[in-house]
Amino acid sequence: LSESGVPQLVQPMIWDYAADIDVVGKVQLIEKYRRCGFSKVWFASAFKGATGVNQSLTLIGHHLRNQLEWLQVASRSPADVLEGIALTGWQRYDHFSVLCELLPVGIPSLAVCLQALKNGGYSEKIKENVENLLGMPNLEIDTFMR
């Protein structure tokens, strides 16, 4: 791979939508990419649509934990290796599947995830900020919102 010249042409993207990412494994994967000559990598997380083909509501807590795990991977990686995070929001698993988690029900999760990534973590203050931005009096993280 190093001799092919590919590492000078592309940047790999590491995808994982789990709430319990193998942080150490991801850091080791980044180190392997570096040894092959890739100077930058991307991470791909999700704010909705990655928890089940028939899922209709977004469980914010799952996606928030996914962002926080990626932040741990970033903090344990060399400072100059991360090019960015692609925050995805899947709406179907393939072209033959029904739509899942339509955008309106995912907007609170999008707001929470963006704020967590922007601020490098999540706190009660960030939760209050999202509630104010969205005009929601009680943002529910670990249950399905009504």
From TrEMBL:
GO terms for molecular function: hexosaminidase activity. Transmembrane segments: none annotated. InterPro entries: GH (IPR017853), HEXDC-like (IPR038901). PANTHER family: BCDNA.GH04120 (PTHR21040), HEXOSAMINIDASE D (PTHR21040:SF6). This is HEXDC Hexosaminidase. It comes from Vidua chalybeata (Village indigobird). The lineage of its organism: Eukaryota, Metazoa, Chordata, Craniata, Vertebrata.
